[in-house]
């Protein structure tokens, strides 16, 4: 038995002994995983699972132990992940802390900032939000206008952020501010960490077309942020911001990879059987059948391309240019999938709430509306295509 | 199934790429077309390809082949496809797959070593004027007579037909016109009494013919596979040829796309390179995306054939559905982005447009394979 086999066996035993029974179900979406933080009360089993995993450092398995992680090697981290998948055990914690700001701090922050923030992220005590976009700076992020002016040991920050996911429930924000308005637009930006409880921070949820409010506007009025909360150099925030976007894209690819594919593909066919029929054999509507097949084939091609990327990485080959298509193609496909769900449901897809509609039907309708944001958030489809044209195809500016 | 090319595959690819670069060109393809050459390909080149082991690349070593896998055939086909090479790989893969799957030991012994050496050419006649894409729709009849069978009917668009020495044909021995059972495969000599072949001129210039069977008498040893169960041989053989064709299509679409990219980087209008225009950049990025998705589909189909994966049939349909749509899209965009020059015969891009449609319609188009995928999945 190798050391890795031994680790795997021990990890499995520990997981079985310590995970609450209700946690042995794979998440259907990100919302099924605990986001941590102080502002939301979680059910006892969820809180318990977070507590034991956080104490062991297995919420952030490969982070060093001194920063609250599990201190595992990459191979052990992968083994732990595989064991949890095979047990259908859901992760104890998810969110921007673990996937975005945490990895960035590990690479870029001072020792003081690492010791201050990383253990609290790993234990799920702090929930983070991202202060990037502004009303006047969406796709053109570097056009941001939120100002930070030095004053003693602090910066004084004024401005407005928008599309801050769950800012109303976050404890800290990482944000981009303009510290040198005279410099070229990419050169005058600084990357800051800000406590959301600071005086002058106010948050207003934005109601979306789905009826839900996952995003907020965040208003910053004379907010004092200590200078020590700068990550990287003052006026050197843009490379830091881009590095973080790299972690974000990895996260998006991981989300596609972690999807419960079997359940998902059956879902579409189950719905077609129920709403279009018959219960077996060829579907009654050949046009709908062809649309379903097209979406399934597109999904299969995307999944195979993700697998190809993973297989080349495992074989020690450098990642190919194909990874640039995942955000663009994955989100466009997800929108088409949701439109097809509506077509399958027919008139039963028209419910907003109340009588005559099942909760599952209303949920699909709301998810369709939510899916429209997929090709806008995290870099629009048009920006992704620009990136492919420039970086992969070498087309001129 | 591992979706990664080994060092061995990459070496083979390099060999194939160098061979194609030094031996062929779109100029040669144009000259072949303009000459009205009856064979439609170069026999000298075919012998060289056979010498490299490609004519029998997936034929078992015991039958004189190279004994390699479909993933090896894939990298060779992709390189041949880049240059639109018309040498008869596809009819050879189809014919030899049928013999490997259903041929008697006498048939294999007689044909496969010679095929692998490039000395004998095979073709498979299964398409008919009314069959569209369905290999089960067979009107050609085989009537039992004492000591054998008599074949009557007409096969259309027989790939490799003009030069084939031996032709495997499907004929109905029982059942109704579209029944899966009741189809039998027969091996006939191109020179046999009652067999005649007329050259068909297709839009892409690939050599093809109408094979007429006018009371052709064959003996029982001519049957390939089991009587009435020819579909059990023909359909898996078609799957193998379809995987090979999909790989060829991938190479062709990548070449058409590269030609287009080059044009976007050199053509100027309004005082600027047209590749700076976002309307064209975005479409180029979308075509690029299709090339990557297509590559994954082809690798999966060939990998599944090699590992005898239970999903091989559906993955072949996945690949052919994808490549049919993606190659046509790429070729359409290539012509459009080239503008007026793309409409001229003088420019090479039109060859890709024509080949895209011909390849799309060979072995079933995208809609046909989507329907087959759904049927295999039981919905």
Overview of the molecule:
The complex is a heterodimer of chains A (about 400) and B (about 375). In chain A, the strands form two sheets. Chain A has a four-stranded mixed sheet with strand order 1-4-5-8. In chain A, strands 2-3-7-6 form a four-stranded antiparallel sheet, with no helix packed on it. Chain A is α+β, with helices and mostly antiparallel strands. In chain A, a hairpin with an 8-residue loop joins strand 6 (about 200-205) and strand 7. In chain A, about 35% of the residues are buried. Chain A contains eleven helices and eight strands. With about 375 residues, chain B is an alpha+beta fold. Chain B contains eleven helices and ten strands. Chain B has helices spanning about 5-25, 25-35, 45-50, 70-80, 90-100, 105-115, 230-265, 280-305, 310-340, 350-360, 365-375; strands spanning about 120-125, 140-145, 150-160, 165-170, 185-190, 195-200, 205-220, 225, 270, 270-275. The longest helix of chain B is centred in the middle third of the chain and has 34 residues, at about 230-265. The radius of gyration of chain B is 21 Å and the shape is globular. The relative contact order of chain B is 0.11. The model of chain B has no long low-confidence stretch (mean pLDDT about 95). Chains A and B meet through helix 7, helix 8 and helix 11 of A and helix 8, helix 9 and helix 11 of B.
């Amino acid at each position: 038995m190798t050391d890795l086999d031994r680790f795997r066996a021990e990890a499995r035993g520990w997981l079985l002994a310590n995970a609450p029974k209700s946690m042995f179900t794979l998440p259907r979406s990100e919302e099924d995983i605990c986001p941590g933080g102080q502002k939301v009360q979680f059910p006892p089993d969820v809180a318990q699972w977070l507590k034991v995993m956080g104490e062991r450092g297995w919420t952030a398995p490969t982070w060093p132990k001194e920063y609250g992680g599990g201190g595992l090697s990459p191979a052990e981290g992968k083994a732990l992940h595989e064991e949890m998948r095979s047990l259908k055990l859901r992760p104890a914690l998810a969110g921007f802390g673990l996937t975005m700001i945490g990895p960035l701090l590990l690479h870029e922050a001072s020792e003081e900032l690492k010791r201050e923030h990383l253990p609290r992220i790993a234990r799920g005590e702090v929930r983070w939000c991202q202060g990037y976009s502004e009303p006047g700076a969406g796709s053109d992020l570097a056009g941001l206008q939120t100002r930070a002016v030095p004053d003693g040991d602090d910066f004084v920050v004024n401005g407005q952020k928008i599309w801050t996911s769950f800012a109303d429930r976050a404890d800290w924000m990482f944000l981009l501010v303009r510290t040198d308005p005279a410099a070229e637009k990419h050169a005058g930006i600084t990357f800051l960490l800000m406590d959301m409880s600071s005086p002058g921070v106010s948050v207003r949820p934005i109601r979306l077309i789905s009826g839900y409010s996952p995003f907020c506007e965040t208003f910053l009025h004379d907010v004092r942020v200590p200078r020590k909360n700068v990550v990287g150099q003052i006026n050197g925030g843009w490379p830091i911001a881009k590095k973080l976007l790299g972690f974000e894209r990895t996260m998006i690819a991981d989300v596609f990879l972690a999807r419960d594919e079997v359940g998902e593909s059956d879902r579409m066919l189950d719905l077609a059987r129920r709403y279009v029929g018959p219960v077996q054999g060829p579907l009654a509507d050949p046009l709908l059948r062809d649309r379903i097949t097209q979406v399934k084939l597109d999904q299969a091609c995307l999944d195979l391309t993700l697998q190809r990327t993973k297989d080349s990485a495992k074989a020690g080959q450098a990642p190919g240019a194909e990874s640039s298509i995942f955000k663009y193609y994955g989100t466009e496909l997800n929108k088409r999938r949701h439109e097809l769900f509506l077509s399958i449901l027919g008139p039963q897809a028209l419910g907003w709430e109340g009588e005559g509609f099942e909760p599952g039907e209303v949920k699909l309708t709301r998810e369709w509306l939510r899916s429209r944001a997929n090709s806008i958030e995290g870099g629009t489809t048009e920006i992704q295509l620009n990136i492919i044209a420039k970086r992969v195809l070498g087309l001129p500016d | 199934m591992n979706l990664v090319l080994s060092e061995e595959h990459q070496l083979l690819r390099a060999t194939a790429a160098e061979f194609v670069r030094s031996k062929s060109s779109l100029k040669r393809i144009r000259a072949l077309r303009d000459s009205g050459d009856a064979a439609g390909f170069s026999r000298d080149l075919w012998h060289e390809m056979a010498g490299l082991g490609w004519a029998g690349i997936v034929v078992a070593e015991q039958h004189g082949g190279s004994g390699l896998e479909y993933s090896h055939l894939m990298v060779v086909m992709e390189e041949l496809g880049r240059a639109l090479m018309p040498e008869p790989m596809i009819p050879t893969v189809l014919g030899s797959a049928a013999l490997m799957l259903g041929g008697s030991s006498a048939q294999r012994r007689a044909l496969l070593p010679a095929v692998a050496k490039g000395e004998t050419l095979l073709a498979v006649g299964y398409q008919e004027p009314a069959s569209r894409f369905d290999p089960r729709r067979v009107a050609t009849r085989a009537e039992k007579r004492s000591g054998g069978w008599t074949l009557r009917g007409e096969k259309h668009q027989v790939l490799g037909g003009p030069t084939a020495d031996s032709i495997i044909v499907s004929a109905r021995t029982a059942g109704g016109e579209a029944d899966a059972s009741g189809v039998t495969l027969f091996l006939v000599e191109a020179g046999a009494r009652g067999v005649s072949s007329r050259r068909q001129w297709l839009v892409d210039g690939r050599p093809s013919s109408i094979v007429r069977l006018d009371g052709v008498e064959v003996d029982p040893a001519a049957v390939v596979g089991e009587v009435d169960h020819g579909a059990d041989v023909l359909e898996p053989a078609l799957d193998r040829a379809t995987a090979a064709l999909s790989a060829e299509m991938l190479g062709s679409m990548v070449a058409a796309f590269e030609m287009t990219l080059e044009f976007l980087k050199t053509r100027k209008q309004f005082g600027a390179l047209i590749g700076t225009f976002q309307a064209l950049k975005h479409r180029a990025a979308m075509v690029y995306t299709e090339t990557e998705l297509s590559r994954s589909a082809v690798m999966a189909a060939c990998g599944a054939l090699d590992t005898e994966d239970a999903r091989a049939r559906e993955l072949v349909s996945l690949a052919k559905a994808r490549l049919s749509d993606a190659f046509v899209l790429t070729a359409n965009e290539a012509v459009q982005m080239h503008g007026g020059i793309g409409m001229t015969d003088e420019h090479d891009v039109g060859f890709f447009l024509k080949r895209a449609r011909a390849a799309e319609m060979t072995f079933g188009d995208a809609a046909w394979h989507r329907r087959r995928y759904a049927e295999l999945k039981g919905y």
